[in-house]
Each structure stands twice: as C-alpha cells, then as structure tokens.
Design goal:
With 635 residues, the protein is mostly beta strands. The protein has four helices and 46 strands. Strand 19 (224-230) and strand 20 (237-241) form a beta hairpin. Among the domains are: 4-45 and 378-508, Glucose Oxidase, domain 1 (3-Layer(bba) Sandwich); 256-362 and 512-596, no CATH class. The chain is 5% helix and 39% strand.
Length: 635
C-alpha cells in the first residue's frame, strides 16, 4: 500500500495513532489536566486502551481454579467494565470502570468461599456518586483503633467524560472509604475524601480527581495514612490521615517530585517530559516506611515517609531510563524509551523491585519542526477523544495556519489549523475549523503555570485533532528564543502569524514491558539507598509489528510479588497478553507460566491472596470479572 502524505494527518499524527494517545506522555494526570473553565472538555484517565482482538489461548505453569463474571447493574454489558482487584478473607472487590457507559461506578463484591465456584454478591455492589467511576489502586486494610475495628475497602473516584456539572458539594473526586467487615453488607464511612484546596490557597467544593490510592498503618505511631494520586495538581501525591476513617484529614499536599529536593526528571532522552505520579505502595523496611512511587517519565522513586508531614519526606533513591529502549535495541532499532513508570512492587526481602512500563500505543508519533528558528526540534501531541487517528501508512508534512482560539467563525481555509487553547470548548474549536474547510487541527496549551502539560481533549469529529504543549505551539509560530522556562509566560503572536513547517510520522516502537531492579534500602530513617536496573522482559508478540492491531492491547499493566522469598516469583497482568508468571533474580527475568483463556483475556489487576491456608493469585479481567489461579511454575 502506498503511504499517504498529508499535513492534516501529520498534525493529527502528533495527536494519535490507533485512537490511543500516541506519545510517550500520559496526558491525563497532574500537568495541565484541569479544565480552564467548567465544561471546557478534558478527558481523564485515558491510559487504558481498547484495541479489539486477542492472542490464541495458552496455559502452562498455572492452574485455573475458578472464575466469576460480574453483572453490570445498568444492563449495558461488561466491555471494559472491570478495573482493579483487591481482597480480604473470602471476598474480592473489583472496581467498576467508566466503560461501557460510565454509569453505576463503584465496586463489585465476589464471594470466593468456594474458590472453584466464586460468585458475585450483587446486592453488595458499592455505588459511588453518579458522574464518578473507580479504577486503579483499590485496597483493603485491617484497622483496629479507638475509632474503628474492622476491614476497610478504599477506591478512587475520577469523573466520567462529559459528566454534567455537579449540583451538590462533595460529590466528585477523592476516595471512598467503606466498612467491609461484613462484605455482604458494605457501609460507607467517607465519600469523596481528598484534596479540596486549590493552587490559589482557597478551597473548592469538590475534591480533586484521584487516580489511585494506597493506605498503610505506621506501627510506630499507630496512625493510618492513605496516599492519593492527585490528577489535577503538580503536587500530585496527597497524603491523608485516616486514623479516624469517618473523618479523613489532609496532612501533606506539598509533594511534587519534579521539584527540589527530589528533582527526579532526567535531562535526556528529551522525550521523557511527563513527570507525575501514577501509582504507589508503602512498605515498612527496618525502622522506616518506604513509599515506592511509580512516577511515569520520572521513573521509579523511593521515598522515606516515616513522617509524612510536609518537609519531612525525603528521597532514598530513584531510577533513570536508559538512552535507548532495550527491547527495541535488541531487535536492531535505536529509539529512546517511552518512560511510563506505571506500577511496581518490592520483593519480600526488599532486594529487588519489579516495575511495569505501561504503553498502550505500539507506534510513536514523531513530530518535527522542519523550518524556522526551531528547525529540528521535536514535540509530542495527544489525540482528541473521538477523532480519526493516523497509522504507520500515514505521514504528514506541511505548514499550518494559525487561526487564534477558533471560537468564532473563520474564513474558508485548507490544510491544518493551528489553534490556541482557551475561551471556548475544544468541541467548538473543532467544529469551527471543520466548518471553515480545514482538514486537521493542532491545539497548543495556553499561558498557564502548567503550560507544558498534555491533555486528552473531549471532542468528536471527522478530521485529525491533536493537542500539544505551549512550547511546541510557540516554536511552530517561530517565536525566537522561547524555551521550557519561558514558554508559560511568553505571549502568543497574533492570528495569521506565519507558522513553521512540520513533519509528523508514526514509528513502531512496541508495547509496554517490565523492568527488574536491584535495590538497596537501609532500614534507618533518613539514609539514602540505591536502585539499579538488572533486566527487562516483554512478551514476544508485543515487540512484533504484525501484532500491533487485531490482537488486543499487548502492554504490561501490573505486577504482584509472591510473598515467599524462596520462590522468586512475580505475577503479571498483561492485558490481552494474559496472565504471566516470571522468575526473577540477579540473572534477570524468565517466564515460567502463562494463561490466556479461550476467546482471550484483558487482565487489569493482579493480587496474591491467601484463603484458608492456601495461596491463590487473583486477576481481574476487564470484560468479564474475576479469575482465581494457583501457580505451578516450570523449573
């Protein structure tokens, strides 16, 4: 097939390939993700893909004990319905994601007392407030203090795309805390607990959206805390005291690991610029509590949170990504890594850490300015939520036309429109340029503190429509001398200003994979340690362009470590790549078990869980429900 060369697609190429974000960045957290005004149209939590198809069935090194399908109470079916899994006793809890209709979000309850025949307790479904959904990082915690004695279940709240504005305060974002001591009759203890502050120092009537949460009890103080991923602020690790789970209190809203004294962003490769929290765990090591924060392009970061108060959290160690992607280099391709530190866990002896680099697009859109003062500069962009993507057969080259904010009707035009964010909704901008005859659009960020952040625009149309950061927009407008430091305060030239040429193309770079690190974490508070990479692992299909479509999402998602140190086993949810078992050590990573069901799987969460003295591994299938496994790894 002959390749198509259109600037419109190019512009859009920056925006996306295959309807998923086509860039090394994760657009839906912290940087730039908050709407400039109500209803502007920012989609959150778009990192989880929806590529149809599956791999052939496989089963070795593991026994399937039982599985249970959930029932969507809306009647809309289960495609993409299920997210994370957590468990306590004989019950598992599966969070209800925004797909397929973003109605009745919350959590399903599964009775596992008969592991070979688990079943949903439908009447125990935990509804969150309408307009919210639950996803990553759910957790159970046994708590016993003067405020509460029982089992907690905690889940996040993010806002449904296109949800109407809330009509009552404290009905969006944050976390929900449930009493699941009697799992068949859960009781809400706190709804939408979270960060109600804003950067101006005032208060909001809705909590910031939360992508993930993890709770722990400090045995030295008896206090229980939960850390939240704040979707809407650059200080994106919020720590709350939930010792009284009916009255959570925010104790630290100051942690931005991209700033001193942490400064985890690496200078090169240049594409690793989306530095924000995505997931985290906290573990007692010696006399300290260590937070393992997966910080996207900032890598895997170890923090001392023994005292979680502002000014008391310190850096223990942090990883850097290599100059070249190891999995691609092994196949003869020299390309920088995606970054995307998504989730990770320590080994039982704390000498190893296994991390998952999630990447939902096997093609990277490479956008380059090809004329003007910034000639040779590259940039990243993100596709709107419902506009045409480009693929490896479509590249782009040409000069866009700067049309300002595109909030009023425009004269007839052609090619690609360059647009500044602000004043009106993203949908209105798209409608305006389509009506004027443009065949693609690039929106660049406005003058704001987080102008270098990427977002996913809520917009539907028939032409490619992408979003990029402000520096890229100003460079396209040939503003001389602008850089990352000055971009957020540099004024925008007038509409009609001549723009530079640009070329945008898609390059296969594989799906996301795993990294194994060796770690040294001293048990004494305040001391530093180290984290050094040992190996990487990817399923073969994920690095083969023939599997880029029609086989489902072949990215890794989450990992759970076997608590038996002698086993050296890790259990991995690999979306359409199935359930995988890896053996780890100083010699690297080796697959010793795999499972893909007849008809395929779409595994999101994974958790090791013991019931009645027997250890199982639980996995949540996005389109079905719960799977219960017993590992039998090959030697």
């Amino acid at each position: 097939m002959a390749k198509r060369h259109t600037f419109l697609a190019a512009a859009t190429a920056a925006l996306a390939a295959f309807a998923a974000p086509a860039y090394a960045h994760h657009p839906d957290h912290a940087s730039g993700s908050k709407e400039m005004f109500e209803g502007e149209g920012v989609v959150h939590g778009d990192q989880h893909g929806g590529n149809e198809g599956h791999l052939p069935p496989v089963r070795y090194g593991v026994n399937l004990i039982g599985k249970a399908e959930v029932t969507n109470p809306t009647g809309a079916g289960n495609d993409g319905r299920v997210a994370d899994v957590s468990a306590y006793g004989n019950y598992a809890f599966l969070t209800a994601f925004r797909d397929p209709t973003c109605e009745r979000g919350g959590a399903h309850v599964i009775d596992m007392s008969a592991p070979r025949a688990p079943s949903e307790v439908q009447e125990a479904f935990m509804d969150t407030t309408p307009g919210n959904y639950a996803g990553e990082g759910s957790q159970t915690l046994r708590m016993k203090n003067r405020y509460f004695n029982g089992v907690l279940f905690i889940h996040n709240n993010e806002t449904c795309p296109g949800a109407p504005q809330p009509t009552a305060p404290r009905t969006r974002g944050g976390i929900n805390i449930w009493d699941v001591t009697d799992a068949r009759a859960p009781k809400p203890l706190a709804m939408h607990a979270g960060d109600y502050t804003n950067p101006g120092g005032g208060g909001d009537d809705q909590a910031n959206q939360t992508h993930s949460a993890f709770a722990w009890t400090n045995e030295f103080t008896g206090r229980t805390y939960v850390v939240l991923v704040d979707d809407e602020e650059t200080t994106d690790l919020d720590i709350m005291d939930i010792t009284n789970p009916r009255n959570p209190q925010l104790v630290n809203d100051s942690l931005d690991l991209d700033e001193p004294p942490f400064s985890v962003q690496q200078e090169t490769p240049e594409n690793l610029t989306s530095v924000f929290s995505h997931d985290m765990t906290v573990k007692k090591i010696g006399r300290r509590y260590v937070m393992n924060a997966s910080y996207w392009d900032g890598g895997y970061v170890l923090l001392d949170v023994t005292d979680p108060q502002p000014g008391e959290v310190s850096l223990i160690a942090e990883s850097d990504f290599p100059a070249l992607d190891e999995q691609r280099l092994a196949r003869g391709q020299e390309i920088s890594p995606e970054g995307n530190a998504h989730q990770s866990e320590f080994s039982p002896d704390n000498r190893f850490l296994l991390g998952t680099d999630e990447d939902f697009n096997p093609y990277r859109v490479v956008a380059t300015i090809t004329s003007g003062p910034a000639q040779g500069a590259t940039f990243n962009a993100a596709s709107a939520s419902a506009t045409p993507p480009i693929d490896e057969e479509t590249s782009i080259t040409g000069r866009p036309t700067f049309v300002g904010t595109a909030c009023e009707p425009l004269p007839a035009g052609s090619g690609v429109a360059l647009i500044e964010r602000g004043v009106c909704t993203f949908q209105q901008k798209l409608d305006t340029i389509e009506a004027a005859g443009y065949t693609g659009g690039i929106v660049f960020n406005a003058m704001r503190e987080d102008c270098q952040g990427l977002i996913t625009m809520l917009a539907e149309g028939d032409i490619p429509f992408v979003f990029t950061d402000r520096l890229a927009g100003l460079r396209l407008l040939q503003v001389a001398g602008v850089n990352e430091t000055t971009a957020c305060t540099t004024a925008t030239p007038a509409p009609g200003t001549a723009a530079a040429m640009a070329t945008i193309e898609a390059v296969f770079d594989g799906w996301g994979y795993l990294r194994l690190f060796g770690t040294d974490v001293p048990g004494r508070p305040g001391t530093t340690g180290s984290i050094e990479q040992i190996d990487t692992f990817a399923i073969p299909e994920s690095q083969d362009a023939r599997y880029s479509t029609r086989f489902g999402d072949l990215s890794v998602h989450e990992v759970a470590m076997d608590p038996d140190q002698s086993s050296r086993l890790a259990y991995v949810s690999y979306y359409a790549g199935g359930f995988r078992i890896l053996r780890y050590g100083r010699n690297g990573l080796q697959e010793v078990g795999a499972f893909i069901d007849e008809g395929g799987n779409n595994f999101w969460g994974v958790e090791v869980h013991k019931m009645r003295g027997r250890q199982y591994v639980l996995a949540s299938d996005r389109d079905y429900g719960l799977y219960i496994f017993r590992p039998r790894p090959r030697r």
